[in-house]
Amino acid sequence: MTEGRARRLSAFDVVVVASGVLLFLLAAQSAPAAVAAYRADGIPGTFTATGLECVRHPGHEQCTWLGRFVSADGRVRRTGVGFYGSDRGMFTAGESTRAYDIGRSGHVYGPGGSNEWVVVALMGLTGAALALWPVLRGRRRAPEERAPEPPAPE
């Protein structure tokens, strides 16, 4: 490689960079909701458990309590929502607890919030690293050595 000439990107580099940009954009899109979930920053109200929904995998079972959410002022009423992070032993049918609706469809959060931000942050960092792949890889490589010049004729 001669000095002053930029290294050409391979097809692999283009795919890696495009994947990184996509991953970073997905993380950026999810970041506001993940932070709101972490802080339990939403409409306060009450979640009332109505039923348990479980999915069984070989050697593993994942359960979520479904129910109703009613905001403290009674303006927001949602049915069929899951309580994020719940498991089989968390509630009994008819039991209620404080909850927050951060605007995500499908579930509400408890007062303790959630740690979804960790996954979103890792997605963002991974996406940024992949998007910068050619630059980061170029800095790691040692400069190419020049071939020795032939001796001058005498």
UniProtKB/TrEMBL annotation:
Which UniProt keyword terms apply here?
Membrane, Signal, Transmembrane, Transmembrane helix
Q: Which residues cross the membrane?
A: 117-136
Q: Which domain of life is it from?
A: Bacteria
Entry annotated with the keyword Signal? yes
Q: Which region is the signal sequence?
A: 1-33
Return the protein name.
DUF3592 domain-containing protein
Protein's organism? Thermocatellispora tengchongensis
